[in-house]
Design brief:
mainly alpha, 434 Repressor (Amino-terminal Domain), 6 helices
Length: 100
């Protein structure tokens, strides 16, 4: 699904739907997920229906409980840090002018 074409509320609805699919795929009830995660059943069902905006901490806890938290790494990719020494080396290697 192309999230860049959707409104925020539609993305929220889709995330809730996907979470529910994952929960059902793991043969868990909303009550069971609530008991394991510490997030209330009401919050879970509201989120799954796209009716409730949940906190990021609750979302992470639900993903952790469903063993999906590792997928968050894809959400905001890490940018490799370049040390100042490496930056100096890269600057030295850059061409200063074109050859004629």
């Amino acid at each position: 699904m192309k999230y860049d074409l959707l409104l925020n509320k539609d993305i929220l609805f889709d995330l809730g739907k996907r979470l529910k699919q994952q929960r059902l795929n793991q043969n868990l009830t909303a009550k069971g997920l609530a008991e394991r995660s510490g997030v209330s059943q009401r919050t879970i069902t509201g989120f799954e229906r796209g009716e409730k905006n949940i906190s990021l901490i609750n979302f992470i806890e639900l993903l952790r409980t469903l063993k999906l938290v590792a997928n968050l790494e894809e959400l905001v990719p890490e940018i490799p840090l370049v040390s100042p020494l490496e930056m100096m080396e890269l600057e030295k290697k850059k061409r200063k002018r074109a050859r004629s």
